[in-house]
Write a structure and sequence with these properties.
heterodimer; A: Jelly Rolls; 2 domains; seven-stranded antiparallel sheet; elongated; B: about 45 residues; globular
Chain lengths: ~180, ~45
């Protein structure tokens, strides 16, 4: 039975066919601004191009606690990174400008893929990249730290903030997450 | 303005439901997440 179908058919990432015929192209409508194209390799669907997964439109402010606090959660679909995908996150924070430390973290699957401290700054950028090393379960980040995150399952990128002094504040003003 | 409760999971304060993506501002005030919407006066922070 021929598996190849002419034309580009729309699916969601969750309901795309389990069979990915070599050369078949589909549109996954629920990823990116208006969908992405994926091509079958005979076994699985491979993303054909980069996609912007998320842009922050709502500032998020943290104050009143010294506990680590979730500021933003971004879902990353299972297996979307592929074997050589790279997550790029760029963000910008406003801070209370004093000597008290403020800690920013990016966590994926329980792994802190980026951590930064800031003090005596009114604002700071907080960025990282994380690339799959020809494997969906092995990564290295921009600090050359190795990770073993299973990107074949869905996961969240969680951005947290933590204040040394609860009277200070952290404001997440800008963030973009792209998958290359 | 509405609020979303918070809980602590693995020593991290976490909202009990997804935070909205279209609000004017979200503030965690030490107790809960406060969601500011169109028409709400925004607090200021240094």
């Amino acid at each position: 039975m021929p598996m190849f179908k002419a034309g580009i058919i729309d699916y969601t990432w969750a309901n795309k066919p389990s069979v990915a015929p070599l050369g078949q192209i589909i549109c996954v409508t629920d990823v990116g601004e208006n969908g992405i194209l994926c091509r079958g390799d005979g076994a699985k669907w491979i993303r054909m191009h980069q996609v912007n997964l998320y842009n922050l439109a709502t500032p998020v402010v943290l104050t009143g606690t010294t506990l680590q606090t979730t500021l933003l959660t971004i879902p990353i679909p299972a297996a979307l990174m592929g074997l050589i995908g790279r997550l790029n996150m760029l963000s910008f924070f406003a801070l209370t400008n004093n000597a008290n430390n403020k800690t920013l973290r990016a966590v994926i699957g329980g792994n802190s893929v980026a951590v930064a401290g800031a003090a005596s700054l009114a604002a700071t950028g907080f960025n990282f990249w994380l690339l799959n090393l020809n494997s969906a379960t092995a990564q290295r980040n921009n600090s050359s730290t190795l990770f073993a995150i299973d990107t074949t399952v869905s996961m969240d990128l969680i951005i947290t903030g933590q204040l040394a002094n609860a009277e200070d504040s952290i404001t997440l003003n800008t963030l973009t997450l792209e998958l290359i | 303005m509405k609020t979303i409760a918070a809980t602590v999971i693995n020593e991290v304060i976490t909202p009990v439901e997804p935070l909205p993506t279209t609000a004017k501002m979200i503030l965690f005030n030490g107790t809960e997440y406060v969601i500011y919407e169109d028409g709400d006066e925004l607090p200021s922070f240094e």
